User: What shape does this take?
Amino acid sequence: MKDFLDIADWSSHALWESLQLAVYLKREWRAGGNRPILAGKNLGMVFQKPSLRTRVSFEVAMQHLGGHAIMLGPEEIELGKRESIADIARVLSGYVQGIMARVFDHSHVVQLAENASVPVINGLSDASHPCQAMADILTIFEHFGELKGLKLAFVGDGNNVAASLVEAAVKFGLDFSIASPESYGLKSAHIAGANALGIKAQAVSDPEEAVADAHVIYTDTWVSMGQEAEIKKREAAFERYQVNAKLLRFARPDAIVMHCLPAHRGQEITDEVADGVQSVIFQQAENRLHAQKALLVELMGKH
Assistant: This one.
């Protein structure tokens, strides 16, 4: 594959190779540093929305691999406004060896990929967050030493993160459940598609039912960027979907808790759980760096 826009675009074999490469590169870094595999290579990073983990992890990943990253915020690039997305893609392709884009509209990253002659990575869109999902899978694999047959339970909004996680569950053989309030659930096509491919997937309204016997409990903010006008409405709808100590008792005793961050503590997750012994949220955040290194090597190291 030339690009990384959605988990579903890559085969299970290709994703496993990327996961194994991430494990190797993390081990190599901790043993003294990564080899400069991407020396002389530049990554253009297009941002429509602010970021902590996406920007820093990609920039540091390029540094560790001997390359360089260039931050391009809304002040420099207004996708489709000051000039067309197709023209931006063609111009950047003459300067850099890869493009990472963090956008609102998924069609924007698709258009970048269609018109760029260099690899394009989806750093986040309204439809999916595949880089986050790969870091999550790496974290789960590190903790349990396996993936197939584990149960991942998502509690909260059926958003872009949840969509990428169910796609990852299909590719890596995890069972998947999600609990959301009515009208805030994951698209039924995601669940139906997973079941059609032999994965045990379900969407329910009861958080306790969703996390029953789960190995992984995952949550995300109730209000994402661009939804600020819905804060009060969403807080009321999601009130019983908090990941707290009471909910954890319905999962397996060895279950881990994940959150892609930023966390709104006291809303979707309590301090007690976020900072508790079952939490792996900061290991998960660090793994953005290592999972993305593998993607950069896979895509840019071969071009």
